Amino acid sequence: MNFKIADLTKNIKFQSFIGFAIILFFFKLIFGSNESIFYRILNELFVIMTASFFIMYMFDVIRAKKINPLSLIMNIGILNAVIFFLITFSDSIMKWVFGNIQQRLIKPDLVISIVSYLYGFLFISTVSYIFFTFKELFFLKQKKNVSTYFNTMIIFFLAASFASVLNPYPELNYIKTTFIIISVMLIIVNSIRISWIAFLSKKEKVSLLILSVVILILFCVNIANSSDTHLHGQVLQSFSTSLDQFMNLMMIYGIIYFGILFFTTLFHIPTAEAYDRKTQEISSLQYFSKLITQVLDFKELTETVTEIAIKVCNSHAAWIIWIDNGETRPLAKKNIGIVDANLISGYILEKMKSGPDAKTTLLSLDKFEGKVKLSEKFNSLAVSPIKTHNEVKGYLAAAKRNDFIFDDDDKDAIDTFSDYASIAIENSRLLEESIEKERLEKELDVAREIQRKILPSKNPQLERIKISTVFIPAFEVGGDYYDFFELSEEKFGFVIADVSGKGISAAFIMAELKGIFESLSKTIERPKEILVKANEILHRTLDRKSFVSAAYGVIDLKEETLTISRAGHCPVILIRDKEVQNIRPSGIGLGLNFTDHFINTLEEVKIDLKENDLIVLYTDGITEAKNIKLDDFGNLEFEKILLENSDKHVDEISNKVIKDVSLFSQNISQHDDITLVIFRWKQNLNLDGENKWQNSAPQFQTKVK
């Protein structure tokens, strides 16, 4: 809505400007030669209104763009050059128009009026634009409300210009003279109020100095050539005495303004370099403060730090001495070779304090013994610590060549900058850790999903055996493994294993066990032979720090027997007739020994199964679960729970075990994987309502806290 109103206002101003220009044109054609005071006043009013609406229109057009003071100065110079050209060649042009055309045309007055109007209209546009640029320069970078001063000056400008209608009355010239004198005084006062020069760089100030001299000369020449003795002045006065007077005032304004501008700029030159430096520091810090919140690569960030550090402290070279696990290395070297950086870094580490007391220090290389080895003649150093949580992570070093030295301003600048750099580098480091953590979490998600696929997706559907399973990894993935194998129509195999260690490494071995036991179960039936063969295969992959405890068993459905071998695993618990039996066939863990000793110590046990026998296989994550006092859950408590609930459904038994273990260790994190496999053997399916029991899928539960 605001844009539409602004566009409408701008269009009204432009239309008003065109309207008054047309009115002025026809007024000139009809009453151009009339010398009465009434028509002179009306003529000047039309000229003033045309110029006013043109200025207002230009104000709306140009203010929409970003104002550059040097561009405005350049525009004034170009327009002055145009005025100079018109004045210089106006005599010859006007003589030809007013001399030759009169003799050749039937109505020469009409052509002369049109030419005079166009000439005057050109000066209306030119002088109005010059006035507009002066107005913009006056208000540029002003911190106080100074509109009263400028508006007062404009009132006297208009009064002096309009008073020119009294030129035919010499006795009233004092009125115009008074207004002119006051206008000049106001010009001097307002020209002193120049605020925008301080915001220019040294290069811009030098350019401004040259431009002000050139434009000052143009203003002086143009006002000298605008006198009544020149045909230009005569034509312009015949068009509008107010426009002629206003142009003269603008020329005076230009002479005074650019004269003051020249000396003001001249006095600003010595301090321009210091201002440029402070501006560079502020802009660099502002730019770098934005980088703190941005996602940046650590290497890219350090490169940015050293690049900006050179600008901030006006040095010739910069680099970062990074401390990582007690080792130091130069990073992000700018304008310095690796050899020089290493040599100077060693000297810096000798001189700089470490710890929370480290602070920005200026160092000289005069007493540096390795200075002769440097390829560049560095002489002065500014070193600032890069700290995170009062710990020095490195140093930001800047160097100057030859006789250039760092002063206190350089020290303060690099000190401030290193604080920003410390925050940014720490953010970048934390970001990298976060990205790495996220990457690992994604990999763990994949590993967790793979492990779920490795373990049985559901328990086998067997008429005479009811099975319940629970697997709870201590971490995202675990090293426990269990599986079931259909050996034949009459034989059913199973395995449970526990890989030493935790996390990803254990999970990889667990995945390998899956392939080993699945392959061996297809060709070998005896549990002992399978464990022997598995030990031989693992010899090629397990390192000396890893081993696997395992128990492999086979249930013969026809003979109603359980044959089992145990390679260093937890004992198999058999609950029969309200009694607990621990079946402990001898054997050492897979991967602990690869000689005949492993075979000789490995035992295979065969058990006849009876009605309602409960066979429990587990890993030590259950019995070794700890409470806040670091006491173990223990075998006795585990067996007690199994015995008290032995007449219940296998799923109820496993849920009771996990519930009690969870309550026992509720105030401490789970430190080992938990796996529980329970079998119920049934001879007669019609007893005790057993036909109502349903098989359940394995339970994957969350970690026990």
| Beta-strand proportion | 15-25%
Distance between the termini: 62 Å
Number of helices in the DSSP assignment? 18
**Strand arrangement across the biggest beta sheet:** 12-11-14-15-6-16
Q: Which structural class is indicated by helix and strand composition?
A: alpha+beta
Could you list some keywords that capture this structure?
alpha+beta, Phosphatase 2c, domain 1, Beta-Lactamase, 6-stranded mixed beta sheet, 16 strands, 5-stranded antiparallel beta sheet, 18 helices, 55% helix, 705 residues
Question: Can you lay out the helices and strands and say which pair or pack?
Answer:
Layout: H1 2-31, H2 37-63, H3 69-104, H4 108-139, H5 147-162, H6 173-192, H7 202-224, H8 231-239, H9 241-292, H10 298-312, E1 317-324, E2 327-334, H11 338-351, E3 361-364, E4 378-388, E5 391-401, H12 408-454, E6 465-472, E7 480-486, E8 491-499, H13 503-520, H14 527-538, E9 548-556, E10 561-567, E11 572-576, E12 579-583, H15 596-601, E13 604-608, E14 614-618, H16 620-623, H17 635-644, H18 650-664, E15 674-681, E16 699-700
Parallel strand pairs: 6-16
Antiparallel strand pairs: 1-2, 1-5, 3-4, 4-5, 6-15, 7-8, 8-9, 9-10, 10-13, 11-12, 11-14, 14-15
Helix pairs in contact: 1-2, 1-4, 2-4, 3-4, 3-7, 4-8, 4-9, 5-6, 5-9, 6-9, 7-9, 8-9, 9-10, 9-12, 10-12, 12-13, 13-14
